[in-house]
Specification:
342 residues, eight-stranded mixed beta sheet, 8 strands, globular
Amino acid sequence: MLAILSPDATLAQQGPPNGPPQPADTSPHTVQFVAVEKDVKLEVLDWGGSGHPLLLLAGMGFDAHVYDTFAPKLVLQFHVYGIPRRGFGASSAPKPECGNYSPDRLGDDVLAVMDDLRIERPILVGHSLAGEELSSIGTRVPEKVAGLVYLDAGYSYAYYDPSLPNGDPVMDSAELRKEMDQMFTIASPRERKVQVKHLLEESLPRFEKDLQEVQKQLQSVPDSAPAPPDSSMARSVGEIQRSVQIYKGVKCPVLAVFAVPHKLDPRPGMDAASQAAATADELARTSAQVNAFEVGNPQARIVRLPNADHFVFRSNEADVLREMNAFLATLKCTMRGSIKHA
């Protein structure tokens, strides 16, 4: 797992509110496995329902059971599925190499499940990191879906504007590696001059600024803090972060629900002034990203929930269901029914 984490990447790995997730099956569903490529199968949870298909995609480090209490609220009018991405849950975990965890590869996995189960134009609902799968599909094959719902998922891995005042070391390092690799390709002197100029004037200074921010954050971490466990899932997480790519606006209907600002629990030893400063910084960073996402996706409905948890479908379940209901009602030309509050 990468040691340098942007605020967005950190959000993508946060645990649910009030402690770690409980992976036990706590809602009625069936399970099947779908082959998405040779030697790779994805677990698919099916909560049932007879309406338009709706696919739930979880955030980093979680499987579809994170929706165990949310999914049953949707089955009255929709056929609800949950798909843990490769490397998580009971899905296969191929080696973290050769593009096995690139955003488009993860998006293609969702498309392969849709093809295998003959799911036509579903609504894709993604939390946190699943925003990159939504953006992958929504930019490449928007005609395959009826709409996309980002649940606190429209961060840099789903939509990145490098001109924002606060950069993202994960995104910027991925782009910098690509540019550095281009230095070893055949190019004319004119092309090489352009490459070097961009590196010196834009990419390297931006990444240097990123690293300075990371260094500042690391000052509060003791040297004795343990390293993350070297597990299969941790290696998958690292490869997902290493393989990020820049997405711009998608080409289909969008609902994006954001926690602005996120609810920040008091840290041990932090006084009131420091807590207020942390909240102000969180508000500024998140607002900048949400505003950029809104500009880049002018067709999207943007909902800002103040002081909500990153797991907005838990901390603000009624708000999320209400907004999904209103959004999905606008898609009635491609499906029937709407979500009813349980």
